[in-house]
Amino acid sequence: MRFSDYDEVRSFLDEARWNRTHTVMALTMISGFFVWGLLLVTAPLVTEWPFVSPAEDIYVLVSSPAGLLAGNMILGYLSDRIGRKKLFIATISSGIAGIIGIILSGNFIEILLSIFLAEFGFGGEETVSLAFLAEQFPIKYRGKVLVMVSNSANVGVAAISAVFLVAGYSIFIEKVVFLAMSLAGVIIAIVTRLKLPESLRWSFVSAHSDKIPVQRFGSPIPMAVLVLFAITIVLTFALVADILGPYEYPRYTSLIPFIYGLGEAAFGYLILVFIDRIGRRIMSVMAYAGGTVSMAVFLLYIYFRLPFDIFVVLLVINAFFGELGWAVREILQPELFVTRYRGLGIATVRGIAYLLYIVSIFALSGISVYNYMIFATAAWAVGFIGSILWYTKGYETLNTSIT
Fold this sequence. Notes:
Elements: H1 6-14, H2 20-40, H3 42-46, H4 57-82, H5 85-104, H6 108-123, H7 125-136, H8 139-167, H9 171-193, H10 200-207, H11 220-248, H12 255-271, H13 280-303, H14 308-335, H15 342-363, H16 369-393
């Protein structure tokens, strides 16, 4: 099909009816995000394996965001240069190599390198996936698809955490089930990716730069807001759900990510009911205000030394606002960047947040639980500030075409 200008391309995509190609695109991204979810908490969970000493825990924990950070920046940049589709085979190849390494690992160095490689592929792929989905899906489905697909990571988190929780200290069982889950996701991803089209928006923009208005990287306010949102979600999800276990509650290293992941997964599907019925600006205020308040309540939990059961309730409440904040961020990231720089834009936002996350792992090592929660509350307040900024200075992207 030939298009005379970019507006025709956008209209064709924005007004399309759901078809088999959309199903294939959604399915391949769901499988990829599911496997990434398995990997997302692998690092903190394998700190229970006997060949990882307590002194080495912090380096294993850092290997995951370090691999994601590298993959995110490299793949995001390349996706704007050579296309979205071409990178999906490269990412899955890196991810498979890392997964095999995790299964076969028998010492600290092997698990370190394997987690890095797996996260480089599947973690870095999120940037390309968000750009691809936003560019290819009709307006009426865009928000729901972005939330539904990214929520598959929460399903993966809950699934692998449950395995580690039930298997106890049986490394063999943990590895076998991890391999089976990963293999199922990878097979679906490979089969469906062979049928993927290239992003039509990217193809037209890259081939007809003379026919479209000049596209610039990004405006200061949207960029600042997205960075603030990313800082909140990356630091609080990873720190409270993943790092809190090994550092502060070693007996519950598997339980905490399971509860949080299960809660976010359930809430993620619930959010689909209203995600496109409420504007993105007001939704962001709801998410980050609620998250800030719910996180601040953790300070009362610690001060009054309440039972761990109360902590679980608070964790679930915070999971709802965490998922809502994640959903708003996942939608706005591709919506607020132009096609020419969408991959690099998303990568930059995520890169800043994950760099701070790596720093925070070292900075928070050894601090008290109370100070830890003060930090988490402050991180949520950062996102709340971003939501107020976006509500007062931003613009609505619900039901609008992306450029």
